[in-house]
Design goal:
Order of helices and strands: EEHHEHEHEHEHEHEEHEE
Distance between the termini: 35 Å
Helix content: 25-40%
Shape: globular
Strand order of the largest sheet: 5-4-3-6-7-8-9
Number of strands: 11
Radius of gyration: 20 Å
Bound molecules: 5-O-phosphono-beta-D-ribofuranosylamine
Largest sheet: 7 strands, mixed
């Protein structure tokens, strides 16, 4: 059975020399840092002891991101580019996982110098397969998982392990056109506007709380290919923006709504 609730609070380590309170001590655990606490909160904590510590922000451990792919991996590359360009502050990509050893995106990730692993299904049940992936992610310290063209539904095993910390990107304005071939569905339905959505993953199909969306017009002469290409362009921007918010912790989940904190 899958339970609800929020992900457990993260523990944050700072090291001697970075926090005056810890000078001379072995690496310490500062305490439980809940979602929403960023380096600035920790700086405030230390500031009260012996003044500001400019180097702490740079030295703060980064949030480790795991990316799951099944195919070409263009969203994975867009996220990697955004991280490299500093557009997702405080994030690092710790691992790229594919459920297909021959996924084109896996080669692209390797060429980019990212850590990769292929974990194929190999006759395992969905739960067994997910358990193997979760183990790899945990082994690499992954805290947030981004599904980027990952073509398998996640089991409760996976969702429980990363509750409210799994993001997915979908090429429609959810809740319209969930599932496969969203762009084809949009053309068939005759909508004038479609787009893309980044949402948190829960047990439903493409139905978790929506983090961010971008709209794309459907043009009179659009084919599935031309529409998909224009949506993909927006996906690449949207995913980085949504992940930036989640990494910042500057949001709260209220029912089905993801709200930015003021
Ligand atoms: C994207 O359109 C994404 O929205 C959907 O699958 C596609 C993956 O493309 N979930 P890519 O592998 O990221 O290029």
């Amino acid at each position: 059975m899958c339970g609800g609730g929020f992900a457990p609070p993260k523990r944050c380590q700072i090291f001697p020399g970075l926090c005056p309170a810890a000078w001379g001590a072995a690496p310490i655990t500062l305490g439980v840092v809940t979602e929403g606490h960023r380096p600035s909160d920790i700086r405030r904590h230390c500031h009260g002891v012996a003044g500001p510590i400019p180097s702490l922000v740079q030295q703060q451990a980064k949030t480790k991101i795991g990316i799951l792919i099944s195919g070409r991996g263009s969203n994975m590359l867009a996220l990697a580019g955004a991280v490299d360009e500093g557009r997702i502050p405080g994030a690092e990509i710790a691992l790229v996982v594919s459920d297909y050893a021959n996924a084109a995106g896996l080669d692209l990730a390797r060429e980019r110098g990212l850590k990769i692993v292929a974990i194929e299904r190999e006759g395992r049940s969905r739960e067994e397969h997910d358990r193997a992936i979760v183990t790899a992610l945990k082994d690499h310290g992954v805290e947030i998982v981004c599904l980027a063209g990952y073509m398998r539904l996640l089991s409760c095993v996976f969702i429980e392990a990363y509750r409210n910390r799994i993001l997915n990107i979908h090429p429609s304005l959810l809740p319209a056109f969930p599932g496969l071939d969203a762009q084809r569905q949009a053309l068939k339905q005759g909508v004038k506007w479609t787009g893309c959505t980044v949402h948190l993953v829960d047990e439903s199909l493409d139905g978790g709380p929506i983090i961010a969306q971008k709209i794309v017009p459907v043009l009179e002469d659009d084919t599935e290919e031309t529409l998909s290409a224009r949506i993909l362009e927006q996906e690449h921007k949207l995913y980085a923006e949504a992940l930036t918010l989640v990494v910042s912790g500057n949001y709260e989940i209220a029912g089905r709504r993801v709200l930015r904190k003021q």
